[in-house]
Write a structure and sequence with these properties.
This protein has one domain: Spore Coat Polysaccharide Biosynthesis Protein SpsA, Chain A (Alpha-Beta Complex). It contains six helices and eleven strands. A seven-stranded mixed β-sheet has the order 5-4-1-6-10-7-11, sandwiched between helices. A hairpin with a 2-residue loop joins strand 2 and strand 3. Helix 2 crosses helix 4 and helix 4 crosses helix 5. The longest helix has 14 residues. The chain binds cytidine-5'-triphosphate and magnesium ion. The site of cytidine-5'-triphosphate has 23 residues, from strand 1 and helix 2. It comes from Pseudomonas endophytica. Keywords: Isoprene biosynthesis, Nucleotidyltransferase, Transferase.
C-alpha cells in the first residue's frame, strides 16, 4: 500500500431518471439532511485535496442542476449524459481527454445516487490502488445467504457466498484504459453495468477494496428513509 494518495479526476453520472424510486424528480435531487443527494455525493470529492476536477453527466434538459449552489463551482464541468450509465460516463471521459487529461490519470467514477461515501473509504481506495496496474473499486462481501430462484420465485439452490461481493462506487481506473474499455464494450453491445465490468470485459481483473456497507445507492424509497433516519441520529 502506497503512503501517498494520487491526484485524480472525479466523474459523477447523474443523468438517470430514478424509475425505481418513482419520486416527482430524479432521485439525485431528493433532499437528505437539508441538501440534495447529488450534493452529498459530490461533497466527499470536493473536500479532497487530491481532486483535479470533477465532471458531472446530466440529462440535457435537467432543470434542477442550475439551482444547486455547487453549479457555480469552477472545479465542476457539466456534460450531457447518455442513454445508459456507461454512455454518461463515456461522455465525461471524452470531455476529460478534450481538456488535456492524460491516459495515465486516475479517474474515480461515483454514482450520483450514493450520498454516504465516507472520507475514510475514499482515502482507503486511493491509497490501496495508488500503485495498482489495473485499478479497482469499493465493494462489500455478500452477507446474507444467497438463493438462486426459478421462474416462479422458488429457491432451487443456495449459492456459495464466499466468493460473491457487491460492487459499490467509487470505481478507480486509468483514464485511457477505462475510455477504451467502455467504448469497445459499448460497440460490442456487451452487458456493462459499471466501470469494472467494462475493464473485466477487456480482460483485466480490477481489485476489490472492502468498504463500508452503508455507502449505499439510493434505489428504492426505503433506502432514502433509512438514510434520513441515520442522518437525524448521527449528525454529519
Ligand atoms: N445514470 C446516468 N445515465 C443514465 C442512467 C443512469 O448517469 N443513462 C446514473 C444515475 O443518475 C445514477 C447512477 O447512474 O447516479 C446509477 O444508476 P441507477 O441507480 O440505475 O439510477 P437510475 O437509472 O436513475 O435509476 P433507475 O434505474 O431506477 O431508473
Ligand atoms: Mg438505472
Amino acid at each position: 500500500m502506497s503512503n501517498s494518495s494520487p491526484a485524480f479526476w472525479a466523474v459523477i453520472p447523474a443523468a438517470g431518471v430514478g424509475a425505481r424510486m418513482a419520486a416527482d424528480r430524479p432521485k439525485q435531487y431528493l433532499q437528505l439532511g437539508g441538501r440534495s443527494i447529488l450534493e452529498h455525493s459530490l461533497g466527499c470529492f470536493l473536500d479532497h485535496p487530491g481532486l483535479k476536477g470533477l465532471v458531472v453527466s446530466l440529462a440535457f434538459d435537467d432543470p434542477f442542476w442550475p439551482s444547486l449552489q455547487c453549479a457555480a463551482d469552477p472545479r465542476i464541468a457539466r456534460v450531457d449524459g447518455g442513454r445508459e450509465r456507461a454512455d454518461s460516463v463515456l461522455n465525461a471521459l471524452l470531455y476529460l481527454h478534450a481538456q488535456g487529461a492524460g491516459d495515465d490519470d486516475w479517474v474515480l467514477v461515483h454514482d450520483a445516487a450514493r450520498p454516504n461515501l465516507s472520507r475514510e473509504d475514499l482515502d482507503k481506495l486511493l491509497a490501496e490502488l495508488a500503485d495498482d496496474p489495473v485499478g479497482g473499486l469499493l465493494a462489500v462481501p455478500a452477507r446474507d445467504t444467497l438463493k438462486r430462484v426459478d421462474k416462479n420465485g422458488r429457491a432451487v439452490e443456495t449459492v456459495d457466498r464466499s466468493l460473491i461481493w457487491q460492487a459499490y462506487t467509487p470505481q478507480m481506473f486509468r483514464l485511457g484504459a477505462l475510455h477504451r474499455a467502455l467504448a469497445d464494450s459499448l460497440v460490442a453491445d456487451a452487458n456493462i453495468t459499471d466501470e469494472s465490468s467494462a475493464i473485466e470485459w477487456a480482460g483485466q481483473a480490477p481489485r476489490l477494496i472492502e468498504g463500508r456497507s452503508d455507502n449505499i445507492k439510493v434505489t428504492r424509497p426505503e433506502d432514502l428513509e433509512w438514510l434520513r433516519l441515520r442522518w437525524t441520529t448521527s449528525r454529519r
